[in-house]
Amino acid sequence: MTRQIAVVAFAQSDHRRTTDELSEVEMLMPVLHEVLARTGLKTADIGFTCSGSSDYLAGRAFSFTMTLDGVGAWPPISESHVEMDGAFALYEAWSKLLTGDADTALVYAYGKSSPGSLRDVLTRQLDPYYLAPLWPDSVALAALQAQALLDAGDTDEHALAAIGARSRADATANPHAQLRGPVPRGDHLVRPLRTGDCPPIGDGAAAVILAAGDRARQLCARPAWIRGLDHRIEPHSLGARDLTDSPSTRLAAERAGAFERPVDTAELHAPFSSQEVVLRKALRLGEEVVVNPSGGALAANPVMAAGLIRIGEAAARIHRGASDRALAHATSGPCLQQNLVAVLEGDPR
C-alpha cells in the first residue's frame, strides 16, 4: 500500500434492548453528528460514504435509503451500501481511499433487532436447500460449536462462564454497553450455552471517519493507521467445517500482517463466549493481550454494527494513547462463517 489510511474518529449510540420510540434515522442521526463534530467536518467535506445494515431486520426492501435522510444526500454524494456488518462497509471505503478517489470517508452501520425474533431472522443466512428449511437458529448453531469445543477438550463450561463474567465486568467502564457489571450466568438457553454465554438482543448504531495521509493528521492528534485489512470466508456448509477452528480468521490475520509483530489489544467480535476461544487460538493471542476491554459483543451486540464497533473501539484506544498496536475482528454468518481482521497502529510516542 502506497497510501496510508487511518481511522480518525469514532462514535456509537447507547445500546438498548428496545428503541420503540425511535426510527432507524432518529437512532442514527446523533451518532453521525457526534462523529463529524469530532473532526470538525461537514457532510459536504466527506469524499465517500458507505453504510452497512440489513433489510431483514427492518422488514422492508432498500431500508438503508431512509438513513440517507440523516446523512444528507443533497447536494448529491458519492455513496454505497453493503448488506453486511459495517466493518465490511469500512473495507469498501478503505479500498476507495486507497485508489485516491477520495481523501475522507464516512462509514456507518445500524441495526434494530428488537422488533422481531432475531433468532428466526438469522436463519435466512443459511444454505437455502439443506439447512434453512430446518430453521436451526443462531443460538442452537453456536451451541453446536460450543459442544464441539467441549468435546475436543479446548474449553469447559467454567472457562466459558469466566469469559462472560470478564466481558461484563470490563463493560462497567463503557457507558454505551447494554449489559454492565455482574450478570447471572442463568440457565441453559441451548445446552451447553447458558444465558450468560450469549449476547444481549438490542438496538444500536456506530460510525467512523477514515482519512488519508496528511489529511488524517490534520483531523486527529493521533490517528489509528490501518496497517492491514483483510477478510475471508469459510465453506457455507457447516458440515464441511471444523467448528473448533477458524482458518479464515487465521488467513485474514496473516494477510493483514497481524503476526508480524505482537499486538497489545484485541477487540474480537465474539457474540458467544465459546467463539472467543476459537478466535484466540486462530489469532494466536496470548494472555498478555488485552481482549475486549470494551466488553465486546457479550456486553452489546447491535446486529450489523457490532463488528464496526470493534474497529472503532480499537481505534479509540489508539487515539487516547491506551494502545499502540491493536487488532480488530468482525464476523458475519453462523459459527464465524465470514471473518475480517484489521491491524491498527498509532504513531510512535
Walkthrough of the structure:
This protein is of the alpha/beta class and 349 residues long. It is built from eleven helices and twelve strands. The strands form two sheets. It has a ten-stranded mixed β-sheet. Strands 5-6 form a two-stranded antiparallel sheet. Helix 1 packs across helix 3 (64-71), helix 6 (138-152) packs across helix 10 and helix 7 crosses helix 10 (273-283). The chain starts with a strand and ends with a strand. The model has no long low-confidence stretch (mean pLDDT 95).
Largest sheet: 10 strands, mixed
Counted by DSSP, the helix tally is: 11
Envelope shape: globular
Give Rg in angstroms.
19 Å
Helix and strand pattern: EHEHHEHEHHHEEEHEHEHEHEE
Strand content: 15-25%
Output the structural class. alpha/beta
Low-confidence stretches: none
Question: In percent, how helical is the residue content?
Answer: 25-40%
Distance between the termini: 23 Å
Strand order of the largest sheet: 3-2-4-7-1-8-12-11-9-10
Number of strands: 12
